[in-house]
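Customer escalation, tier 2.

The customer says the design service returned an amino acid string that "doesn't look like it belongs to this structure." They asked us to rerun it and document both sides in this ticket. The original structure tokens are below, unchanged.
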């Protein structure tokens, strides 16, 4: 069961799942935003991580190192998309929770386990993305679920994040399939959302 389903069950509310694997912030604005209907009680929004992954992997496909300038442009585009999405979401009257983007490298920046070279400045770009998310939340009255802080130590430093086991014996390992939360990670996301709602 995913984090959204866990949270909906805990709170006793109906769940409308609009998130899609691999969706970028452009996808959220173009295809998902207008599907939010009625007056939802709660909206959780996590975007920006797939945008950075796309920017990171595009040069690698043609044998080039990651492009730091392109990554900073990506952060700016994600900021633009937050500026579009948040007014529309808060206008519904829902409580809105934004999630920061976690780091599967656990702060090392080492991406060798996915066959990528070291990304000079990559951690700084991720920090800039998360700072922008916090700023956007403050401007629009949204709560912040700090997944980045919650997940540190539960990625590549905890074990093999490339595995597919949804419930590994190692409960400190919260990722599978490289970047997806496993069952323990989904529970941690739910807990972090709940903490944000209490705050």
């Amino acid at each position: 069961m995913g984090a959204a389903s866990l949270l909906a069950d805990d709170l006793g509310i109906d769940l409308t799942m609009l998130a899609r694997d691999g969706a970028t912030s452009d996808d959220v604005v173009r295809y998902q935003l207008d599907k939010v209907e009625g007056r939802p009680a709660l909206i959780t929004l996590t975007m920006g991580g797939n945008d950075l992954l796309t920017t990171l992997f595009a040069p690698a496909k043609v044998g080039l190192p990651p492009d730091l300038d392109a990554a900073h442009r990506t952060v700016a585009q994600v900021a633009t998309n937050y500026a579009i999405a948040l007014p529309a979401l808060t206008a519904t009257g829902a409580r809105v929770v934004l999630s920061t983007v976690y780091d599967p490298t656990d702060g090392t920046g080492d991406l060798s386990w996915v066959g990528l070279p070291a990304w000079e400045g990559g951690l700084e770009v991720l920090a800039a993305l998360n700072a922008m998310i916090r700023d956007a939340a403050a401007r629009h009255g949204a709560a912040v679920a700090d997944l980045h802080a919650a997940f540190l130590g539960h990625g590549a430093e905890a074990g093999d994040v490339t595995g597919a086991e949804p419930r590994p014996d190692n409960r400190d390992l919260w990722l599978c399939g490289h970047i997806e939360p496993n069952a323990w990670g989904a529970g941690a996301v739910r807990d972090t959302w709940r903490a944000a709602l209490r705050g």
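Tier 2 assessment: The sequence is consistent with the input. The mean pLDDT is 93. Helices lie at 3-11, 25-32, 49-61, 68-90, 122-140, 147-151, 183-198. Sent an explanation to the customer and offered a walkthrough call.
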